[in-house]
Amino acid sequence: MKAVVKEKAAPGARLMDVDVPAPGPRDVLIKVKAAAICGTDIHIMEWPPFAQARIKPPMIFGHECSGEVVKVGDQVKNIAVGDLVAVETHIPDETCFMCQTGLQHICEKMAIIGVHVDGVFAEYAKIPAVCCWKLARDTNPDLGAILEPWGVAVNGILKGEVNNRTVAVFGCGPIGLMGLGSIHAWGASKIFAVEPSEMRLSMVPQFAPDAVLINPAKDNAAKVILDATGGRGVDVSIDISGNPRAIQAAFEVVRRAGRVTLVGLPSEPVTLELTANVIYKEARVFGSTGRMMWQTWYEMQNLMDSGKFDPMPVITHRMPLADFAKGIELAQSGKAGKILLYP
To answer: What domains does the chain contain, in order, with CATH numbers?
Structure first.
């Protein structure tokens, strides 16, 4: 089969012919229908310290996808050949304290598809059955490929209430855009969207029509938000950017006893004014990673079934797997929403 392989411990990757993987007793083999490019894939291509510490070449990368099951292991009971599935990329060991207490998504021995084991930028992929979310067979595979990143936003948003709350979202990349759509559908009273890319900021009205758009390259985001809230600040402040200055602003604009949720991954240490912006405010601070297995996925399904939100407009580009380098370069530019690859 064709697959995108991180062949060496150096920048770059290559489309190669490799063997189709054989599923183990608790795995399924899927024929990949659609795969999406993620920020992690950009890191793997660029090969910064983040990737160097996690990736052991050679390996196939990519982790956001949907596919049709073509083979199942002999211990798999809940998935059948012909099923269409979306992939949950966190592989829990199912035995540690976190897994046994309902927190599989932060398993103590976590492995991640496309990071620690071979991924989905390929014609076929071996996926643990425990990581398969069954979709209706008539589901658009493109939708299945974006559920994993949408779930990142949903998990962070639902660390507390957003209905009838004022909410600021820092970072309007694909995850942020889907998060904004979810917040709007769940009835936030006022939404602020902060993003330096004009292209991505221009996409926000498709997801949250009444959001206040703020470009921090042109305006002081904290001042705009504080002025618009009478100096009180927002009820909920969510960072999806990982940018240190955005994170600082997220704490600055949250009101007393408000909530800050941190979803984005900073690439460097972040300095915070803890006394004024956390301690004296009695701010509630949550870290958020991945998706609750499977609570987050049910929340997404419920929202789609309600008809109040469709995440599909986040997809702006579609291209063959062979053009993966072009797709990753486009994702790097910030001039795209979600980019899908087709084997």
So the answer is: 2-151+292-342 (3.90.180.10), 160-287 (3.40.50.720)
